[in-house]
Fatty acid desaturase (Prosthecobacter fusiformis), 338 residues
Amino acid sequence: MNATTTSSDPLDLNVKGDLAEPHEPHWISRSAFQILACCLYAVQASLFLALYYNITWLVVLLLFPASHLMHGVLIGFHEASHGLLRKNRRFNEFDGVFIGILSLTSFSLYRAAHQTHHMHLATERDEELWPFVDPKSPRWFRRLAAFLELTFGLWFTPYLFLRTFFRKNSPIRNKRVRKRIWQELIGIVAFWTVVLTAVAWFGLWKYYFCMYLIPAMFAANMQSWRKYVEHVGLSGTSATGATRSIVDEGLTGKILAYSLLHEPFHGLHHRHLGIHHWQLPHRASELTPTTPEETAPYPSYRLAVMDLIRDLADPKVGPHWRTETNASASPASVALPG
């Protein structure tokens, strides 16, 4: 029997040998979030120095990695909602709440709403994909929602979850959960009141805009585009039929997937909720379609984005749209890899 070994390539998460298991990756893969956070701290420190010494060209240059790393940290927020970011539950909760404060979203609210996304994927009860799962929503409204979310994601995303919380017949009914959500919302308002007061008092606006607001806006928009790539335009009913996954075997693709905590393997995340992100690439073979409705993995993000763009003219998600479309004698939207 072959001994179990791990690849010397930290981006190759496949464990070799007869005893190979997806829970034995390289330590660099297991520490992806911590590495992303440290890189973000380093970029932020560099941004501070560039602003302090008025090196404008360096400030502009650093905004790009700051935005991408913030996007990666936002995905850590998602991992925390599944209890998978940290082994220690208290640390996991702390990281989730803190990232939520910075992204203007209650962690407990996101977690409660995100459960509907997994329990009722691509149905009218999927709160995260509203209004694209609502067949009663007119096309002009869905287009407007897509424009706002893809352009002003830093504010539209919190609105999306607040709508879930405040709307009539909210799926979030547990009194203890609602109480905690209220506490977190008050905490967000209090935190940003103190921060903005201090920024105004000490005249730190250039640091606020360049170290937080601008990269946060870009990061939130990246988050929205990634979410749309994963789901918008699909009409399947299964974990792989209602998601686009990207399996890029190139070095650049592996680095991108690593920096996004392997979210590009999104169909696998919906199929295996309880496993850590670093275990997903090991199961990439499961993404091979076994039924006509399933979507084959895309070999690059570029092809997945191109497929999404074709669907943005009439953004919708879910199999119920097929019924609506057939009733009006129009062809259904089916996403296929380019």
Remarks:
- Residues 30-327 form one domain.
